[in-house]
UniProtKB/TrEMBL annotation:
Name used for this protein in its record: Mth938-like domain-containing protein
Annotated source species: Diaphorobacter limosus
Pfam families: DUF498 (PF04430)
Coiled coil: none
Signal peptide as annotated in the record: none
Length: 124
């Protein structure tokens, strides 16, 4: 039986709360894109209503297997037309609230998957 935590070679989300997450030792308080390949990119949106098609086109440029979209405190879906750049690259997108997206990202990244988390961090 193993009594020590798993060690990951990818950046992981170590904690989260309303309006913030911690990635490894860094506390982040604004929306962010993180990837299992080590990228961390500021995502210029602070509310779901701020999102545009360009935000999802930016995600398509990251060339991941799957994008986990954390839509804030509750699960909200972007308009399907905004997802065309992702579909054109055959990239999957899963939408869930941001806390669930953090947990899902950690699981997939820990499995060695090429995953991106686009996390909407709304100001409480």
């Amino acid at each position: 039986m193993k009594f020590q935590p798993d060690q990951f070679d990818v950046q992981t989300i170590t904690a989260y709360g309303p309006g913030w997450i911690s990635v490894d030792a860094d506390k982040i308080t604004s929306s962010v894109i993180i990837s299992s390949r080590g990228q961390r990119i500021a995502w210029d949106c602070s509310r779901f209503e701020d999102l545009t098609p360009a935000h999802f086109a930016q995600l398509a440029e990251l060339d991941a297997e799957v994008v986990i979209f954390g839509s804030g405190a509750r699960n909200r879906f972007p308009p399907p037309a905004w997802l065309q750049p992702l579909m054109a690259r055959r990239m999957g997108l899963e939408t869930m609230d941001t806390q669930a997206a953090c947990r899902t990202y950690n699981i997939l990244a820990g499995e060695g998957r090429n995953v991106v988390a686009a996390l909407l961090l709304e100001t409480p």
